[in-house]
Design a protein that fits this description.
Pfam families: Ank_4. The radius of gyration is 20 Å and the shape is elongated. By secondary structure, it is of the alpha+beta class. A five-stranded mixed beta sheet has the order 2-1-5-3-4. The longest helix has 17 residues. Helix 1 runs antiparallel to helix 2, helix 1 runs parallel beside helix 3 and helix 3 runs antiparallel to helix 4. The chain folds into two domains: about 90 residues, Ankyrin repeat-containing domain (Serine Threonine Protein Phosphatase 5, Tetratricopeptide repeat); about 110 residues, Roll (Ubiquitin-like (UB roll)), CATH 3.10.20.90. The N and C termini lie far apart (about 45 Å).
Length: about 200
């Protein structure tokens, strides 16, 4: 039976092995009974956070199969899916990443922001909710969602066909003064990056 200190050391070794992509050591420690969801006391990172950050797809898959929680947040509010740049890993984690902005033809630069959706909850309603939450828009002010360059999304099956990093625009119902757009755009710098669990704490 391991002591408390030994258990903490084993947990740290598991996080280190995940960061290095050492699948053999990860498997050995997990089979030994080390907690896959243990977090570093300072930054809150788990072994899954490290595997995602370093883009070790095989380690990520094994950790998920072994019960790793993909919704645990770091001390900065980061989920594992936010740390990887590898599309294969995002799919393993069940996340869809989209680029969204508000349509505004008068701007020379109209930047996109990235949002994340759970593929298991991929509906038009959820896309609208998350997009509006992140962009600071009232859903009732959205006329339509357009997949660029010129495809209107209308139904759940349209949303289900979206691929990672596709570009979307919210087309707003606005008055002559463009008040709704200015009001929405002004909130972008005030809102943190969206993720499902952190949103419960920040919004």
């Amino acid at each position: 039976m391991t002591t408390f200190i030994e258990e903490k050391e084993l947990q740290e070794r598991l996080r280190e092995a995940a960061a290095l992509g050492d699948i053999g050591e990860v498997q050995r420690l997990v089979e030994f009974g080390v907690n896959v969801n243990s977090q570093n006391e300072i930054n809150g990172w788990t072994c899954l956070h490290w595997a995602c950050k370093r883009n070790h797809a095989q380690v990520v898959s094994y950790l998920i199969e072994s019960g790793a929680d993909k919704e645990i947040l770091t001390s900065k509010g980061e989920m594992p899916a936010q740390l990887t740049s590898k599309r294969e890993i995002r799919k393993t984690l069940g996340e869809l990443v989209l680029k969204v902005r508000i349509q505004n033809l008068s701007l020379r630069e109209n930047d996109f922001i990235e949002i994340e959706l759970d593929r298991q909850e991929l509906t038009y309603k959820e896309l609208l909710r998350v997009s509006c939450s992140e962009l600071g828009v009232n859903p009732e002010h959205v006329e339509k969602i357009r997949k660029l360059p010129n495809t209107v999304l209308r139904k759940d099956k349209d949303v289900a066909r979206l691929q990672d990093f596709q570009e979307l625009e919210l087309v707003l119902i606005i008055n002559d003064n463009n008040f709704l757009f200015r009001n929405a755009a002004s909130t972008l710098t005030e809102r943190p990056c969206y993720n499902k669990k952190a949103s419960k704490l920040t919004y």
